[in-house]
Design goal:
The structure is a single chain. With 478 residues, this protein is α+β, with helices and mostly antiparallel strands. The protein has helices at residues 12-41, 49-55, 71-89, 98-116, 126-138, 150-173, 176-179, 187-190, 198-202, 206-221, 233-251, 257-266, 284-300, 302-309, 382-392, 401-409, 413-417, 444-450, and strands at residues 317-318, 326-327, 338-346, 358-359, 361-362, 419-421, 431-441, 454-468, 474-476.
């Protein structure tokens, strides 16, 4: 049997660029896990993994941490992921046997799967499932000195189609402002974590905001179908998606979602100017595995495809426990007003109306009105993102916000490392409270006159004034 048609040397460069980009994203993901897990999901974290694994069986959330957990083991998993990802970025497995390359890509997928499945609300974002779905497909792409398998490249297009088309549908079915093209009057200001240029994007003329929205609809609802057209139409569609994603990278912080979307789109582009080396034909057993993979993905695609067609479309959902084929989407509704939770504390032993309250400054989320929003993507600040959700509704934070207050009152070193500034320099405050503020971007005139990026107004309490009780739990004193 001739297998030549199942591999296409012309996609050697796109495959290589995709693999390098995916490995870099893996590296960022594992690095974030290593640096943030202890205060969030560690043994003494806000939502400890051991508590989760006692409650949720392995069959519902497969993870090696069901067999054993310790902070040392988690750190070992995360740093092993960093090391292997770095080796993949450097191309150390480009010329190894096919089985060795596949194993090198399998390991980070298994390790990150184990992290996501016990990460709870901190790992509930669509880009986690996207990384796992795409990472699973990458296992079957083979090393750099073999021809890329065509079926895997087509499966990557199927991921990109669902990612973009699902995002477009959820918008049109959701907020009316997407249909009248006015959502971007608000989005740049109210998005979860604005970036350094978000203030400028917000102040673009309103007609241009409508052009942005219309371009988004075109790119997400029309262009994806061209991914399955002959070249060069598919490449043109992918390049347009890349351009759109770069616009999103410039306008805000969305972890690695945009970067991974760009990486997938690169795998479609067959016009990358690069000399193609002499490539070996993939072994027959690899073709057999790719056939099996294709059958598996087609079968698992039924529910995500049905979800796309449903008026009750849900977004960012996994229909299988291993996140192999998922549904995606974002901003089906756009908040029109921005609120932020500001956490304050004092070392005054008897606070009254004259007490000076000093606030904790987070790394990414808005706080000090004079501080310009920073660029963090593709790195993901998990606590900062959940603080945005908590400001929308405290029900998003019922499981962890009181614990965060307790950690700050105890001056927990790991928790304080998640912050940009501790106003007490590692000392324990006497009392703590959290208040809700309405935030808006300054106007250009306000910006010139005050130097501030934000204007904020208090709206009311989120947590009452609290202190640590005799057994270390928070006690309200209001």
């Amino acid at each position: 049997m001739g297998w030549e048609w199942l591999a296409d040397p012309g996609y050697w460069a796109p495959r290589l660029l995709f693999q390098r980009a995916l490995a870099a994203i893996y590296l960022v993901a594992f690095l974030g896990a290593a640096l943030q897990f202890r205060p969030l999901i560690g043994e003494r974290g806000l939502l400890p993994i051991p508590r989760f694994t006692r409650r949720v069986p392995f069959r519902r959330a497969p993870s090696l941490f069901h067999w054993r957990y310790s902070d040392r083991l988690f750190a070992g998993v995360a740093w092993t992921g960093v090391a292997i990802s770095a080796a993949l970025v450097l191309g150390l497995f480009d010329h190894t046997p096919v089985w060795a390359t596949m194993l090198a890509w399998l390991v980070p997928w298994l390790l990150y799967q184990s992290i996501v499945n016990v990460g709870q609300i901190w790992y509930s974002f669509g880009w986690e499932s996207l990384l796992l779905e795409v990472g699973f497909l990458a296992i079957f792409l083979g090393p750099a000195d073999t021809a890329p398998p065509v079926l895997v490249l087509w499966l990557l297009r199927w991921v990109l189609f669902r990612l973009e088309f699902g995002a477009g549908l959820i918008k049109m079915r959701g907020d009316a402002c997407w249909r009248d093209l006015t959502c971007l009057y608000h989005h740049h200001e109210t998005q979860p974590m604005p970036g350094p240029l978000s203030w400028h994007f917000h102040h673009l003329p309103k007609p241009l905001h409508k052009v942005e929205a219309a371009a988004s609809h075109f790119t997400q609802l029309v262009v994806p179908f061209a991914l399955f057209a002959p070249q060069p139409a598919a490449s043109a569609a992918a390049l347009l998606m890349i351009l759109t994603q770069l616009w999103l990278v410039a306008s805000g912080n969305f972890s690695w979602l945009n970067f991974l979307t760009i990486a997938i789109a690169v795998s479609v582009v067959d016009i990358i100017p690069a000399p193609v080396p002499e490539l070996a034909e993939p072994p027959v057993w690899q073709h057999v595995l790719v056939f099996g993979l294709t059958v598996l993905v087609v079968g698992l695609s039924y529910r995500p495809a049905r979800n796309l067609a449903s008026r009750e479309q849900v977004m960012n959902t996994s229909f299988d426990r291993l996140h192999l084929v998922n549904t995606y989407g974002a901003f089906g509704s756009v908040t029109k007003v921005r609120h932020e939770i500001v956490i304050e504390a004092t070392d005054d032993p008897a606070p009254d109306e004259n007490t000076v309250w000093r606030e904790y400054e987070f790394k990414g989320k808005p706080g000090d009105p004079r501080r310009r929003p920073a660029q963090f993507a593709p790195y993901h600040l998990r606590l900062d993102w959940l603080m945005w959700f908590a400001a929308l509704s405290t029900r998003y934070a019922e499981s962890w916000l009181p614990g965060l207050a307790e950690k700050l009152l105890a001056a927990d070193p790991g928790t304080l490392k998640l912050l940009r500034r501790d106003p007490f320099d590692g000392r324990r405050p006497a009392y703590l409270r959290a208040r809700l503020y309405r935030y808006r971007f300054t106007t250009p005139r306000e910006r010139r006159e005050t130097g501030a990026w934000w204007v904020r107004e208090p709206r009311g309490p989120v947590l009452p004034t609290t202190k640590l009780g005799p057994h270390g739990a928070v006690v309200a004193v209001d």
